[in-house]
Amino acid sequence: MIELRGLTKRYGEKLAVDDLTFAVRPGIITGFLGPNGAGKSTTMRMILGLDSPTSGDVHIDGKHYDQLQEPLHHIGALLEAKGVHGGRRARDHLLCLAQSNGIPPRRVGEVLEMVGLSAVAGKRPKGFSLGMGQRLGIAAALLGDPDILMFDEPVNGLDPEGIHWIRTLMQRLASEGRTVFVSSHLMSEMALTAEHLVVIGQGKLLADTSMSAFIAENSHTYVRIRTPEPERMRDVLTAQGFRLSAGEGGAIEVEGDNAERLGELAAAERLVLHELSPQRASLEEAFMQLTAQAVEYHAHAGPEGAPQPAQPPAQPAQPAWGEEWNQRRAGGQGRTSEED
Ligand SMILES: Nc1ncnc2c1ncn2[C@@H]1O[C@H](COP(=O)(O)OP(=O)(O)OP(=O)(O)O)[C@@H](O)[C@H]1O
């Protein structure tokens, strides 16, 4: 188990990690999500004692990293795939790590086998592809047979076969009862992998929830209606108890997936329809909505096209999970240009 309490990191003026409190539990994959620059890597570095917190605390199995005897037996991490001595043969790199952590040399052969690098054990990693580098980094993380594994953006730059391999490996590790904590800036990747989600934006905790709760709250369905008589349509729907909001370009968005019933109602009222289309907001969209105000740099549609610093959130208070997104829907606000 990893436990963070009020973990904070400031680099000069920059508050990279802002008062994070959450726990990462064993037996499941926990996704650590946030846009670029949200503070994921900084948090992971503090968990491993590679950066010291400005304030707050982090415990691994109840201890600080530097209090762990033989830490590789407790926690293994993949931070940077290319953080390997490129000139040392893969096997020798792992042997060195094993030796300095009291791990028997035979374990090196086992982990090379587990990650599928036995055939290139005698080769130097400087000639490795990105995927092979990731595998070697994972072999190092697995050396001490730790109960906790932490992977920072492990699928970045990998081909579909590599992505599938890492996903399967993480699922196996979690099913063995280990704690698996994996960062990503892609909701779509996490949706396929993680059972629990921790979301941060600009260093702040935005959500700590199960994936099933996230899906239940954010897989939002609605029916979009366009009609030349929107006011009459709204009156008819409101009288029938439907929940409405205003969509783009004068469309009406009706909560739920009752397209057939809506079509019948329109016909009964002799209302002309130009559109009647069921919609489902994707998890990726929900994630983007949640983190929109916490993205460090937005692509800017201005004439310069240069990235602009994001505006501070209008309401600095931490939003409840999915609240902002639901409020926008309920309040009928369209997307702002800042989010685009
Ligand atoms: N050593 C440092 N000195 C100054 N600022 C830093 C340092 N390390 C990180 N930062 C800043 O802290 C913020 C968080 O960075 P971090 O790398 O932790 O984010 P991240 O969520 O891992 O992003 P990414 O998905 O792009 O890897 C960023 O604004 C970054 O520029």
From TrEMBL:
Residues 301-340 are annotated as: Disordered. Coiled coil: none annotated. Keywords: ATP-binding, Nucleotide-binding, Transport. Residues 2-227 form the ABC transporter domain. GO terms for molecular function: ATP binding; ATP hydrolysis activity. It comes from the Bacteria. CDD domains: ABC_BcrA_bacitracin_resist. Pfam families: ABC_tran (PF00005). Belongs to the ABC transporter superfamily. This is ABC transporter ATP-binding protein.
